[in-house]
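Hello,

Our lab assistant flagged a job as stuck in the queue for most of the afternoon. It eventually completed. Since we weren't sure the result was trustworthy after the delay, we are filing this so someone can double-check. Below is the sequence as submitted and the structure that was eventually returned. Let us know if re-running is recommended.
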Amino acid sequence: MSEKVLVTGGFGLVGSQTVRRLVADGHRVVATDLGTPTQRKAARTLPDGVEAHWADLTDPGHVDRLLAATSPTAIVHLAAVIPPGIYRSPALGRRVNVDATLTLLRAAQARPHPVRFIQASSNAVYGARNPHRNAELLRADSPMNPADLYGAHKAEAEQHIRSSNLEWVILRLGGVISVDPEAMPFSVDALFFESALPTDGRIHTVDVRDVARAFAAATTADVVGETLLIAGDESHRIRQGEVGKALAAARVSSTSCPGDVRVIPTATTTGSSPTGWIPLAPNKSCDSSTTRGRTCSTRCARRRGGGATRCG
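-- returned structure --
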């Protein structure tokens, strides 16, 4: 029988793509999130057979009932409060990013059968890096030194996960992007947040479909106890100064490729390289004379013997 995978934050940008990837790979999937009107509407677009469970992960009772009702063999934990919203509601951010993660870990450890826990972390755990003083590439074993609230939350959550007795895998994501501008979060707050950051800061992006492949693979791959860096190839490395233009242009044109600077990056610190797979499509502008409004796609291939662990 196929594995049953519980995906928290299952109706967001990464969650919805991860759910689709898991279904395509033959898994039984349970997607959970808050039962808001927006999330319930999003649930109607997911593939047939996906179970939707509405739960507040900050409520231990909800979490216990969720796991009892679904009995997952693996949990992909994507639910989070991210920038810039985390700075508007820092207390809520901590309850979701740290406390709810710990609650979910404890509930999973109490299950009668082993549960694999796959955590969505971020390159934000490395903190700010001056590109003129820190030219070296980051590695999975580079020291964590978070410089902002979100990075600190993710670093603390990682420590809780490593202290658990579960089979765990941590994926540190670069700046997740999509070829669909409508799928990307956009607000005046986001634009202001990006404009306040140093323009020469480095950003390493990754297509959301590649992120989904990574999470799906982590549910069964022989990577227990590993921290993996997930991002695109060298063509996905851009500068912070390009983000403001990307935020505006993404609302106008959808003729773009993964990594094209016209697509909104959602992370603002240095990203990571892929492990176990590599994107085959380079980051280059689509030829508008041939695409006719269509989007280019990133294809992925498995890399034998693992993959690179450095990032820029």
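-- support follow-up --
The delay was a queue issue, not a problem with the job. The result is valid. Residues 90-109 form the longest helix (20 residues). Residues 253-312 have pLDDT under 50 and may be disordered.
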